C-alpha cells in the first residue's frame, strides 16, 4: 500500500523530495474530547522548531511535501491533524467549529513551548494561515509566524473565492445563519462547499486531494463553514506586534489570488516580509515557487538564530 506522504511528495521537484530515511513519528496529544494525532520529524540539533498548521481539505500527511522539505534542511517540524481531519479523533465531529481550531492550535503551541525551550515558529497553509496568525496573536509563545494565505472572511472577495461557486460565497453568511439552528451539525462533503478543483494547479494532485478521505474527500460540518465565514481576528492587523510575519503566497493561485492575502498583510504592524511563490498554485509544489518557500523559511530561521 502506497504511503500517502510519498503520493503527495511525488509532485515535488526531485531535489526537494524528502529522503526515504527521513520519516515522521506519530504521536498523540489529548485535549478535552480530542485525541490529536501529531506527526513529528525530530531534529534535536535544530536551533528551533516549526509548527505547521494545515487548512481545509488537507491533513498532516498531505503536508509532507512542505514538512519534509523543511526537515531536510535540518529543522524540527511538528504537524497536527486538525480536528475533523487526518487521524485525529473527535468525540462529536459534527460540533467542530472554526473557533475550536483556533483554540486547539493556541493550546498546542503553548504545550509545545512548555515542553521544549527552543524558539517556536508557527506557519499555516491556506485556511491555516489565519490560524497561525491567531496563534501568534494569542499564545504569547511564538517567536515568528508565517502563512501561504491570510484569508480574512470579512472581505466579500475572500468569501466569493473561498466557496465552490462565487454566488454561493456571496450568500453563504446570511444563508448559514438562517439554517444554523437545525443544520449546523450536518456534515457534508467538502467538495460541495469549497472549490477543491482549484486547490492545486496540477490535475493529478487535485485528484489525489479530492480522493483522500482524510482530507479533501472528507466531510465538514456546516457549522464549521458558518463559523469560519463569521470569524473576526482577535487582534486587528494594525495592532499586531506579537512577532515578525512572513507571507509566502503562491503567485499562480487559482483559488485565492495573492491580492486577497496582501490586503490584510499590508495592514500588519509587525516587521513583515512578502514572498510571491512564482509559478506555484494554492497547494505550492511547483518550481521555482516551492524552492522560494523553503528558502524563505530557512532565511527566517537564520534571522532568528544568527549563524
From TrEMBL:
Residues 49-282 form the Serine aminopeptidase S33 domain. Pfam families: Hydrolase_4. InterPro entries: AB_hydrolase_1 (IPR000073), AB_hydrolase_fold (IPR029058), Hydrolase_4 (IPR022742), MAG_DAG_Lipase (IPR051044). Transmembrane segments: none annotated. GO terms for molecular function: catalytic activity. This is Lysophospholipase.
